[in-house]
């Protein structure tokens, strides 16, 4: 929502907004950064909805009982969902839409950097802030460029991905998350059919089945010889990875094999848009990363601390795997979000995390994050920990995350990497910084 607000403000429209976290004082510095862009922010109490407002845009998290919605209806102001508005915006540009269960924000950020380096002057609407934009005191998840290209994330969780008709569609992967696999495949099939050009990751068994043109597809480690773009020779040394795409060497200061796949996807999308592999490699050498995507906070008393947005089973496992080349021992902490999604993915969380953990590695969890609204609290993070422990892995539960360091400190010896994972909770960034400062 904040990305769309900034984008529209950047095109010359007058934008205001509200959020329930403004009421609770939990929005961090987002409110101040929005207002610095000229976007007036209100408490979520209805005062921001006034006669003369042309349109009210709501996210899928906003219920009809929210006072802003009620007031807009009373005043006869049209209401649209975020996804509907993003589809309207996308229709005004040559759009590249990044879809898939995991890696959308990172791939979007990488592609934005590549297109900028190539002189395409792109716009971007992302789900996460780019570090180089954040350094300019921006939220970093939106930018209005002067060129014809717009790069967006295409979200499958609410089905909104089917509304876009992009010039280029990219499918990174298909894994169980929010929906069952068969439902996701149907959604991504519509995404493929709506895309003028389409590229899939043929290393993922479900995305491979949705290929439209093998020469636009990619794979890693020779997983499918039919793919037009082949990524090979992956190496990670510390926080640095290298690999090759069709003979072009790439080097990046980032963690993990999954980020190589994201980089390959971004490179392929840029190639379809007319950018050379050499230009893509040059851009990615300077890539500074995405907010809370394997973001290295630093080293304190011999312990590396990494902050990550991982929140589904595959992402959590990938984040753990990415940290393993750095240290002989990884201590991972995870705060699940939402009682319904945690219950839906319980088996997958247990299987993926347990499989990722080495003998010395540990997983810690605190209680599930509750963002408000209606929810049946019929599962606990302790249930997941007990399941993982039952598989013979080192698993620990600390209900109150503020007591995590108190319990885990003796497990954080010099040479350990501490990985902090979680999403949807805007206070997680500060929590991670506090943990780092207290080590």
Description:
This protein is of the alpha/beta class and 439 residues long. The protein folds into three domains: 2-84, NAD(P)-binding Rossmann-like Domain (Rossmann fold), CATH 3.40.50.720; 93-285, UDP-N-acetylmuramoyl-L-alanine:D-glutamate ligase (3-Layer(aba) Sandwich), CATH 3.40.1190.10; 295-438, Mur ligase, C-terminal domain (Protein-Tyrosine Phosphatase, Chain A, Alpha-Beta Complex), CATH 3.90.190.20. 35% of the residues lie in helices and 22% in strands. It has 17 helices and 20 strands. The protein has helices spanning 2-10, 20-24, 30-36, 67-75, 82-90, 104-117, 131-134, 181-194, 205-208, 257-272, 277-285, 313-323, 339-344, 346-356, 381-389, 404-408, 428-438; strands at 16-19, 40-43, 56-58, 79-81, 94-99, 123-125, 142-143, 149-153, 168-171, 197-200, 218-220, 229-237, 240-245, 248-252, 295-300, 303-308, 329-335, 362-365, 394-397, 416-422. The strands form five sheets. A six-stranded mixed sheet has the order 7-6-8-5-9-10, with helices on both faces. A six-stranded mixed sheet has the order 15-16-20-17-18-19, with helices on both faces. Strands 11-12-13-14 form a four-stranded mixed sheet. β18 (362-365), α15 and β19 form a beta-alpha-beta unit. It is globular. The protein starts with a helix and ends with a helix. The mean pLDDT is 93.
